[in-house]
Amino acid sequence: MPIRKMNSADIPAVLRIQGELAFQDWNERQYEQEIKAPYTYAIVYENESGILGYAVFHLLGADSELLSIAVSESAQRSGIGSQLLQAGLVQLDLDKSDCCFLEVRENNVKARRFYENHGFNLFGIRKKYYADGENAALYRTEGAKID
After folding, report:
1. Residue 78, Cβ neighbours under 10 Å: how many?
2. Residues near 32 by beta carbon (within 8 Å), at least 6 away in sequence
3. Of 16, 18, 50, 133, whose Cβ has the fewest other Cβ atoms within 10 Å?
4. What pLDDT band is residue 146 in, cutting at 50, 70 and 90?
5. Residue ranges of E strands in 40-119
């Protein structure tokens, strides 16, 4: 599988994907801090075309969190996002029924459907969470759904 841990040399490609999708505004320093943190599981999907996607998880015991996941527009709908998500979810301690949480823009129907298809369940709405006033939909899953 072409998924591996993210390193500093990957950050320019990750920032390119992030900019292409315009959904997040992390900077190089933030990614550097994440990949060095002992509780972070940051991964990239890379093939002969280069880095096509990435995901950043915080593995915090029973309450882990998916902070970011993205796939280049040219590679979307090819299963890369599913592979990245599954790679993170299998890091959970299934014996302890660990949960993974995430938040997504309430109006992002495409992303919400993706998460729901991978076993995430809506459990709340955080009103006016984003800077533009949009609500965040809160999701969680227990354990990993392996396809």
Report:
1. 14
2. 8, 11
3. 133
4. very low
5. 40-47, 50-58, 63-71, 99-105
Percentage of residues in the chain with pLDDT exceeding 90? 69
β-strands 40-47, 50-58 pairing: antiparallel
Average pLDDT over residues 96-120: 90
Element of type H or E holding 139: strand 136-142
Instruction: Compute φ and ψ for 137, nearest 5 degrees.
Output: -90, 130
Element (H or E) spanning 140, and its range? strand 136-142
Q: What is the pTM of this model?
A: 0.89
CA 70 to CA 81: how far, in whole Å? 7
Residue position matching structure tokens 């809506």: 122
Residue 41 near residue 51, CB atoms below 8 Å? no
Measured CA to CA, the distance from residue 79 to residue 32 in angstroms comes to: 27
